[in-house]
Amino acid sequence: MGVAFVLAGLGLVALPGALRPIGRRLAPSDWARLSAAALVGGFGVFELGLVFYAAPTVLSASGAFGLASLCLQMLGGVAPGGAAAGWAAGVLAVVVAGSGALALDRARRVRRGTWVERCIGEHARLGHHDLVVLPSDELAAFSVGCQGGQNYQGGQVVVSSGLVAALCPDELAAVLAHEAAHLDHRHQRYLSVASVVRHGLAFFPPAKHSARALVVALERWADEVAVGVVEDGRDRLRSALRRVTASMVGVEVAAFSAADTVAERLAALDGPPPGLAVAPLGLLYSPGFALCVASVTGFGVWIGNLQMLFQMSGHCPL
Q1: What is the tally of structural domains in the chain?
Q2: Per-residue confidence of the chain (318 residues) as pLDDT tens digits?
Q3: Which of 106, 197, 208, 293 suits 191 as a labelling partner, its CA being 20 to 30 A distant?
Q4: 157: helix, coil or strand?
C-alpha cells in the first residue's frame, strides 16, 4: 500500500511537466490551477505513502514488546522490504517534509524582505495596491503580497525608474496591470506551492519541470489579465516584454532562464487567447483523475485495515 501511494504521488507531481505541451493550449488560469492541484495532491500522497511504508518498522522499534504477532503481521503487510526499507522511508518522509517547510519559510522571509518601506522610492496608489518607483537604472518590475502590520489593503507593485524611462506609457500600463494581476489573484500562494515541491522533492527531476510549468502558467495568467485591461494589450505587453528581455540578456548570465520564460509568453501573446476543445481537455484531465481515484481507493482500503486493527486492539496487548 505504501509503495502504491508513493508511486501515485510521484505520478501526480510529474503530470504538469509531462503534459505541459497540451496545457499550454488551456486558458492559463485553468492550467495553473490544475498544475497546482496536481503538485499539492502529489506531494501529499507521496508523503502519506512514505508514512504508511515506515509505520510498521517505527511501531515495531518503539514498542514491539507490547504488540501481538497478529497486529505486527497486519501492519507488516503494509510495508514490504524489511526494516531497512522502513527506516529509509521514515527518514525520507522527514527530509521531504522538512525541506518543504524550509522552502515555505524561505519564501515568506523573501516576501517580507522585499517589501519596500515608505521612506524608499516614490509611492502612489495603483487601484487598491501601493505603487513604488525605485530610483534605479536597472529594468525591474515585481509584486509583493500584503504584509502583516502594513497600512495597505493590497500589496505592492514595484518598478524601477529605469523601467519607467525605457517604456512608453501604454507599455508601462501593461506591465503594471500584469503585476497587479499577480496580486489580485494571489499568485504568491501558487509560487509557494512550486517552491515547496521543487525543494521538497529535489531528488525527483520531474518535480522541477512541473514547478516550472506552474510558474510559467502564472506569468501567462497575469499576461492574459493585463491584455484585457490595456487597449491593444497584446501588442503593448509583447513590446514591453521584448524591451525588457533584450536588456536582461545583455546584463546577467542568470537572466537567460528568465529570457526562456519570456519566450514562451511571447509565443502565447503572438496568437489569440488559448482554448482547448472538450475532447483533448478530457484527455488532459484523465491521468490525474485516474491517479486520484487510485489514491483515494487505496486510502480507503488502508483505513479499513486500520479500523480492523483498532477493533482487534482489545485482543492484542498494546
Answers
A1: 1
A2: 567 788 888 988 999 999 888 888 888 998 999 999 999 989 998 998 888 777 777 767 766 434 434 444 444 444 556 677 778 888 999 999 999 999 999 988 888 888 888 889 999 998 889 999 999 888 888 888 865 544 445 789 999 999 999 899 999 999 999 989 999 999 989 999 999 999 999 999 999 999 999 999 998 999 999 888 777 778 888 888 887 775 554 333 233 335 556 777 878 887 777 766 555 656 666 666 666 666 666 556 555 655 555 555 554 444
A3: 293
A4: strand
Residue 148 lies in a domain: no
Residue written as cell 497486519?
74
**Residue 94 CB neighbours (<10 A):** 14
Q: Give the cell for residue 309.
A: 486493527
Euclidean distance between CA atoms 289 and 13, whole angstroms: 13
Nearest Cα to Cα of residue 155 among 115, 104, 107: 115
Instruction: Output phi, psi for 127, to 5 deg.
Output: 65, -125
Residue 8 placed within a domain: yes
Q: Which residues have CB under 8 Å from 189's CB, separation 6+?
A: none
Q: State the alpha helices, DSSP H only, in the chain.
A: 2-18, 20-23, 28-63, 69-76, 82-114, 161-166, 169-184, 187-200, 205-227, 233-251, 256-269, 278-312
The SS3 assignment for 117 reads coil
Of 42, 3, 50, 49, residue with least CA distance to 19 = 42
Measured N-to-C along each axis, helices 28-63 and 69-76 cross at an angle, to the nearest 10 degrees, of 150
Report if residue 260 sits inside a domain. Answer: no
Whether residue 268 is contained in a domain is answered as: no
What sign does the CA torsion over 110, 113, 115, 120 have? Answer: negative
Contact indicator for 54, 87 with CB cutoff of 8 Å: yes
Please give the residue range of the domain that contains residue 36.
Answer: 2-118+163-167+188-207+275-312
